[in-house]
Amino acid sequence: MSSHASASPTTSYGAVGGSPLSAEADSLISSYLADHRAHRTGSETSLVTESSHSDGRDDGSFFSYDASGPGSSGYYPEDDNDHKALLGNDGGTKPSASGEGGSPSDQLGGQSSSTEAPPKTGTDSRRFRLAMALVCMFGLAISWVAQGWLGQSLQDSGYENPYIMSYFGHSMFALGILIVLPFYKTFDINPRRYLMPTFVLACISFLMLYLWYLSLNHTMLSLNTAIYQCVCVVVYFLSMILLKERADWRKFLAVAVCITGVFLTAFAPTEDDSSTDGTALGYMLLIGSTILYGLYEVLFAWYRLVPPDAPALEGLLASIYTLGLTGVWTFLIFWIGMPILQATGFENIALPPTPELRMDLLILWFVVVIYHALLLICLFMAGSPLLVSVGTILAVPTAILVEFVAAQIGGGPAPSIHAMAWAGMCLIVLGSCC
Hints:
A hairpin with a 2-residue loop joins strand 1 and strand 2. The protein has 2 domains: 87 residues, no CATH class; 308 residues, no CATH class. The N and C termini lie far apart (89 Å). By secondary structure, the chain is mostly helical. Helix content is 62%, strand content 1%. The N terminus is likely disordered.
């Protein structure tokens, strides 16, 4: 009998050209597999332990913050309590840094699956999110001018009731809840996580909208829009305070240029000198609304209701859910203002007298809903309040174009804008783009 027949019955692990492997190679493979079987006993325990947390509900891994993730800017709170899951399943398990709990193929290769995450593609890629943010910014510019034009035309027609315009328009945000309801069980949304932040956001955004409607009847739409774009200045300062952004000399220069443009625009001579008091009041209300608007954007990022590293679909639903809860808070709380204003005689609480004006008011409410929905979605997609506030500068030329087109369609004279106001608007755009 040959030497091969008398050998140990150990399995031969391969052959080259029909011949057995060399004894040295056979020994190396046997040693490798023996070590792997010994290691596999411990790794199976790690896999079972980690899989029990794969639904993301216990460790809060679904919306955990990663400073290197797309859209993140590194300034969100790092307290673990702020990172609890807002929506349920993350569709996977985060492997530990030590490599335990990774796939057997990763352990065979001696590499941890957490060393380098694969680049995000499709709807979660950075390029896709920036493209969607640009689309939202363009929609913001159009809807902003549309609601300004509708609100101003309603007041010019004799219907001066900013509180009704604000209250019912803001309450219609609650329609967002209906959009999220079909996905409620799928993503396991936790309402308690949203209650207090959305209450604060509802108070700020309602007062912001009310002051803005009050200012419309005392300002020209194009000038109103130009000054409102200085919200990027407010966002910048509040971002340094709340979001811990670092100061930069170029940003300070941009702030100075924007403020100069505001003064030139606000104090430019007008055709009707008798409206000076009204114009001054309008700009005071407008500046107050602008500050609240900037605070609203920064607080939305600071509360981390929709983290920038969330998947696109979950982030979209969380944005709409946030908008819906602000509408619910408005409906439940701010109705108290109507009897107070009626009793004091400050406003006559009533709907428009004609069907045409009522239809205009209804359209205005829907435009307000669209604007705020686009705003929250844009904040999520862009990942930066400052980027969003700068991008909405498109509203400035859009507003001017709308005024000239409306004047031509109506057969009236085109609105006259003083050269000082033109210079101010140019400085606002220049400063915001720095």
